[in-house]
Every structure is written in C-alpha cells, then in structure tokens.
Specification:
282 residues; mainly alpha
Length: 282
C-alpha cells in the first residue's frame, strides 16, 4: 500500500513539473524575468500560508545562506526559462538535470566530500549524453545549450547550499526565501521589457506557481513514504511526461541522437543515485 502511495505521489509530482515546463515553453514569447516573477509570486501564497499556519519563523536561522540559495536559485531558473525559447522542452529539462554533476564538483571543492570512482564513471556517462546531443543532434541550438548549462551549474550551487543549510532551517523557509528573492529580482528586471499578458496568458502565468508548488509538495511526500533509492529515479518521469506533451502540443522534433543523449544523461544519474544508496546501506 505504501509503495502504491509513493508511486502515485511521484506521478502527480512529475506530471505537475512537466505541466510547468510546457507552460513556460508556451509562454516563451514573454521575457524570462517576467515568467520568473509570476512563477514565484503565485507560489508565495502557498509558502507564506504554510509558514503562518504552522507558526514557523519566516526569517529562518541562517539568513546569509538562505539569501545565497535564493540568488543561486533565481539565476538558475532565469537561464532555464531563457533556454526554453531555443530548445525542445524535454531536451532542456534533460540537460538541466546534469546539475548533480556540478553539485558533486562543488561538494568536493567546498564541502570536502569524497566522490567514489564509480560515481565519476556514471557522471561521465551523463556528460557523454550532453556531448551526443551537441555533437550528433544537428538540430540542437548552441545558444540554448549554453543557457541551460549555465542553469545547471547554478542548480549545482543550489544543491551545495541546501546541503550546507542542512536541517537547521525548515524546508518551506528555504523555499520561501527563494520565492521572495525570485519575485523581487524577476519583478525589478522585467520592468524594462514588461509585456502585459493577454487573455489566457494571465491564468497560465499564475498556474506556473501552482504547478511548481504541488510538484514540490508531492515529491516531498514521496520521499517521506519510501526510501530515496526507490523515489529518486522516478523524478525522471518528468522528462518522459514533458517529452510526450512536447510532442503532442508543440510538435517538437527529436532525432534518434536526441533520444540516445537523453537516455545517457538520465541513465548515468539514476545509476549514481542507486550506487549512493547502496553505499549507505552497506
């Protein structure tokens, strides 16, 4: 029964994130800063509501680290949203998922963690997927690739900072800082090129935060009901859902090499997760 609940939670979570991704793609004519603003603003209703309802101090304990995590997060989100204009949506999502490689490098440099040789092999497999996408998929836009790789680097910074923050601050406090900073940064930087949304765009912009929030909540629930080794690989259902919706909605075109590259990226990261959990258990 617990397994069934976990699978249900992850399907809901990854589908919600996939809907957020394709909504960003649909709204890609609107500048990325404005997308960041609306995605963050609509999430604040949920995060503030949760903190106030549960009497959790909003300012948290590690303010400098929380601010840094917020700044790294908004940078990553902005570059990811920018990349959506130039890449098929599932390709952008897959490339963003190489963030754990950069997180591992930063953990070695700044947190003095050790990475096992086999983990580097799995990371190399994922990075090979990036090279396959760039070198053999002739339809891949170089500028879009550059943007999404920058997004992945800053996601790696986010993972490292979250590890540093640890359990000294409530997870929703961490997310709330991110949403506040993203709302301010996105709002200020979108003023110059502000485009007033038309019709359905208003609803879709507000839905960005709803999809993002529920994706996060149900992923958290899944991790609370089952072992990481079972749950973490299911995160990559997001790529599958995004790819299917992208094919149906945007008629995205994927070559054979696109699929090979995506499979290498996801495969290497899943193997790394399983290996880490096995090492913990032994």
């Amino acid at each position: 029964m617990a397994l069934k609940k976990t699978i249900t939670f992850m399907i809901v979570s990854t589908f919600a994130f996939a809907l957020m991704n394709v909504t960003v793609k649909y709204l890609s004519s609107i500048n990325a800063f404005q997308l960041v603003f609306f995605r963050s603003l609509s999430s604040l209703f949920f995060t503030f509501g949760f903190l106030l309802k549960n009497c959790i101090p909003i300012l948290g304990n590690q303010k400098k680290l929380l601010v840094l995590r917020g700044l790294a997060g908004v940078t990553s989100m902005t570059f990811f949203f920018m990349s959506m204009k130039y890449l098929p949506v599932a390709t952008a999502v897959s490339l963003r998922y190489i963030a754990p490689i950069f997180a591992a490098i930063f953990a070695v440099l700044f947190l003095k963690e050790r990475i096992k040789p086999l983990q580097w092999l799995f990371f190399s497999m994922s990075f090979l997927g990036v090279l396959v996408l760039k070198g053999l998929d002739t339809q891949l836009n170089t500028y879009g690739l550059m943007l999404v790789l920058i997004a992945a680097v800053f996601s790696g910074v986010v993972y490292t900072l979250i590890s540093k923050i640890g359990t000294k601050d409530h997870p929703v406090v961490v997310v709330n800082y991110f949403m506040i900073i993203a709302t301010i940064v996105g709002g200020v930087l979108s003023i110059k090129d502000w485009q007033t949304p038309q019709g359905i765009e208003w609803g879709l912009l507000m839905l960005l935060g709803v999809f993002g929030y529920f994706g996060q909540v149900y992923m958290t629930k899944a991790f609370q009901t089952a072992a990481t080794a079972l749950v973490a690989p299911m995160k990559y259902l997001e790529v599958v859902f995004t790819l299917i919706i992208g094919l149906l909605w945007f008629q995205d075109i994927y070559t054979v090499w696109s699929f090979v590259g995506i499979l290498l990226i996801i495969g290497g990261l899943i193997l790394n997760i399983l290996y880490k959990e096995r090492q913990k258990a032994s």
